[in-house]
Amino acid sequence: MRLRFVGCGDAFGSGGRNNTCFHLTGERVNLLIDCGATSLPAMKRLEIVRNDIELVLITHFHGDHFAGLPFFLLDAQFSRRTKPLVIAGPQGIEARLTQVMEALFENSSKTQQKFELSFVTLSPEQTESFGAVSVMPYPVVHGDSGGPFLGYRIEAEGRVIAYSADTEWSETLIPLAREADLFIAEAYTYDKPVKNHLSLAALQAHLDEIKPKRLILTHMGEDMLSRLETLPHTAAHDGMSIDL
Description:
globular; alpha/beta; single chain; 21% helix; 7-stranded mixed β-sheet
């Protein structure tokens, strides 16, 4: 399998990076993890065939993780997509998408797609299967608005990919990412505590418990980006590909 960082930036585009969007592909897997506002042009720049994507997993409803969906769906409509698409995420996923689509493109949520579109609500600590993909959501801590907030442990084709999503330190990150083949973890700051976000220092304090086989840092603010040359762990960049 291969995971590509379509976008790995924070909400403010620090360092000129795109909003969060990861593309996971394999022999029987083709999915997105989050779809931030800049995702469609970023996917086009990377020449990703959007109409082959079968599943979109959304962690929460902040614009840098969610607001690319209206553009993605309109692009699918106008490019004559026929393959079914599943969008899965926290409780309220369908209603929140309708609100965003109407805010951005009036009446777009009422358009009858030429492809089958379905929604799945993911509940914390209840496994959901999508063909060859198994998803275990975990609750994470990222404020009061824009939730519920979920991180994901994804199993597919004999590999485990864990994603913290946006969160401050939470004990649920330990089972979420324990011994994962790849743990994609937010590291918004180096050691400064910021409410609802994870610092590298807070993450490192628990790595002996998590023991991921591979760790990649994402969603970095200016503080972290200024330290890229000296970081003790791999930092994501837009367009980066990881073979699993």
